[in-house]
Amino acid sequence: MIARSFLAALAAWTFGAQAAPEPFPSTYRAVPSAPTLIRNATVLDGTGRRLEGADVLMREGSIVAVGPGLAADAATVVDAQGRWVTPGLIDVHSHLGVYASPGVNAHQDGNEMTDPVTSGVWAEHGLWPQDPGFATALAGGVTTLQVLPGSANLIGGRGVTVRNVAATTVQAMKFPGAPQGLKMACGENPKRVYGGKGRAPSTRMGNVAGYRQAFADAQDYQRQHEDYRHQLADYEAQQGGGKKKRGDGDDRPPTPPKRDLRLETLVAAMDGELRVHVHCYRADEMAVMLDLAREFGFRIAAFHHGVEAYKLADRLAAEGVCGALWADWWGFKMEAYDAIWENIAFVDAPANSCAIVHSDSAEGIQRLNQEAAKAMSRGQRAGLDIPPERAIRWLTANAARALGVDTQVGTLEPGKRADVVIWNRDPFSVYALADRVYIDGAIVYDRAAPAAPPASDFLLGQPVGGAL
Q1: What pLDDT is stored for residue 426 in this prediction?
Q2: What is the pLDDT of residue 236?
Q3: What pLDDT does residue 9 have?
Q4: Can you tell me the distance from the alpha carbon of 51 to that of 85, in angstroms, rounded to the nearest whole number?
Q5: 322 pairs with which residues across the strands?
């Protein structure tokens, strides 16, 4: 492993002292907001605390203070008596924008099913910001989400973490500074897709051989660039740092290796720049993937779906790997059969655990709070103590940790982004609705004023009743 990040080094080697600009940079700008004080609510702050009769003060897009009896300080006061306040919800596994509504072939941009390893593709290059699903997710309290490629391939490409704001371009939604994800998939999907085409992989053995070969190629690519760096340093030393006049003959500078976007992504994963997210159901395959990560020096941020994660709960906690799971999806294919309703609760039980409720669904993302409530209820029936102040972390702090944005969002702590949801009641009630949603301190959804937020271009001109 080279000392500095591979991509930064690659830019320096290719462009010299002037580094290459970041490709497809975020242009996100927070909506201007007025100082706001939410008063006298039940607050679940995402750190494990439940505060009764507490206030939340937001100013200039950030949380200023959380606690009882805060001074209004010229802020707009929102009376939240009888209501609950949480951090904005975070979905770590979404395909909004890449499998957009309406579900027509023209909107199927989530799986590049042309090769088992398509690590060079980026989900953001297929993301349609006008997907109406973003607005319905916002009404469910979701303020941040990771959009991933699908799971047809062994290595499907890079994901993108976005702010759930109305925008014309994906760059205007990109979470500033958030690391990209890398989507991998094990099990039935890749072997079915490619085995059905008479290609490798067609077995789980072929899956693992495919990962190993891809990362071995990436290691070789990394070595090629390291060799080039040494050759370039030797050349510059011979030329006196480029100050001496070059002679004729064999003193030409070395030629850098051809850039390979597929391998560049895998090297970035090994270098820790990308957060690796693995679609994986069975416990035995999760163990294999953990061994694979150890072999090639990358870390898995989270296993997604993981219906058998409860079998590895202690190991996941010990190795700092999150389990991004459903409450009760099971049985729709063979690898999803050995599921239990207590899965999330059991993954959450060990010390230093990281259980997450995710959606993988344009419908499920609208009610992540209810999915968490199902898992909380099942865990309590199994004898586990799971109060709301613990379960809310499955949708906020733990999700932020998996995405690498936990220093900015996921909890209501001073200095963090003011992503806040006011619920009409306990968010783990089946009757709970988001009354207001704030992103960076600005109201982006208000149930009392449903026509206020910007509408998707796809929905503009649609009458309320649907009749023309």
Answers
A1: 98
A2: 87
A3: 63
A4: 10
A5: 302
Q: Which of 374, 373, 357, 375 is nearest to 365 (CA)?
A: 357
- The set of residues, in sequence order, having a beta carbon less than 8 Å from that of 430 and lying 6+ positions away, is 370, 373
CB atoms within 10 A of CB 312: 22
CA distances, 215 to each of 227, 244, 265, 298, 341 (Å): 18, 41, 10, 10, 35
Q: Is-contact 302 406, C-beta < 8 A?
A: no
Residue 72 φ then ψ, to 5°: -65, -35
Q: What is the CATH number of domain 88-203+262-409?
A: 3.20.20.140
pLDDT at 287: 98
Helix (H, G, I), strand (E, B) or coil at 54: strand
What is the per-residue pLDDT for 36? 98
The pair of three-digit structure tokens given for residue 466, joined into one six-digit string? 């649907």
- The 3-state DSSP class for residue 353 equals coil
The runs of H, that is alpha helices, within 325-449 are 343-348, 368-381, 388-391, 397-403
pLDDT for the residue numbered 10: 61
DSSP label at residue 159: E
Residue (of 99, 100, 106, 198) closest to 156 by Cα position: 99
> Token pair for residue 431?
């009757």
Residue type, 269: A
Instruction: Write out residues in the chain with pLDDT < 70, as ranges.
Output: 1-20, 241-250, 451-454, 460-468
Q: How far is CA 449 from the centre of its chain?
A: 30
DSSP β-bridge partners for residue 41: 54
How is 260-302 classified by DSSP, letter by letter? -HHHHHHHHHHTT-SEEEEEE--HHHHHHHHHHHHHHT--EEE
pTM: 0.93
Q: Are strands 36-44 and 84-87 parallel, antiparallel or unpaired?
A: parallel
- C-alpha distances (whole Å) from 220 to each of 3, 113, 227, 264 are 17, 25, 10, 11
**380-393 pLDDT per residue, tens:** 999 999 999 999 99
pLDDT value at residue 2 = 36
For residue 241, give every residue at least 6 positions away whose Cβ sits within 8 Å of its Cβ, in sequence order, or none.
none
- Residue 10: alpha-carbon gap to chain centroid: 25
The 10s digit of each residue's pLDDT in 176-197 is: 999 999 999 999 999 999 999 9
Question: Percentages helix, strand, coil for the chain, rounded to the nearest 5?
Answer: 30, 20, 50
User: Would you state the pLDDT for residue 15?
Assistant: 46
The closest alpha carbon to 64, from 33, 30, 89, 26, belongs to 33
Paired tokens of 407: 């220093």
SS3 label, residue 58: strand
Cβ(306)–Cβ(321) below 8 Å: no
What is the crossing angle of helices 188-195 and 204-238, to 10°?
90
* Residue carrying structure tokens 């865990």: 379
Helical H runs in 140-203?
188-195
